[in-house]
Amino acid sequence: MSGVKEECGVFGIYDLDGGNIAPSIYYGLTSLQHRGQESCGMAVSRTDGERGNVQFHKDLGLVSEVLRKDVVHNMNGDIGIGHVRYSTTGESVAENAQPLVLSYIKGSLALAHNGNLVNTEALKWELIQTGAIFHTTTDSEVIAFHIARERVHSATVEEAVHKTVEKIRGGYALVIMSPRKLIGARDPYGLKPLCLGKRDNAYVLASESCALTSVGAEFIRDIEPGEIVTITRDGLKSSKLAEQKKHAHCVFEYIYFARLDSTMDGVKIYDARIRGGKSLAKSYPVEADLVTGVPESGLPAAKGYSEESGIPFGFAFYKNSYIGRTFIKPTQQERESSVHLKLSVLESVVKGKRIVLVDDSIVRGTTIANLIHMLKEAGAKEVHVRISSPPFLHPCYFGTDVPSNDQLIAAQHSTEEIRKMIGADSLGYMQIDYLEGMAGGLPLCKACFDGNYPMEIPEEIKQD
Question: 128, 167, 168, 356: which could join 291 in a potential S-S bond, CB 3.0 to 4.6 Å?
Answer without folding.
Answer: 356
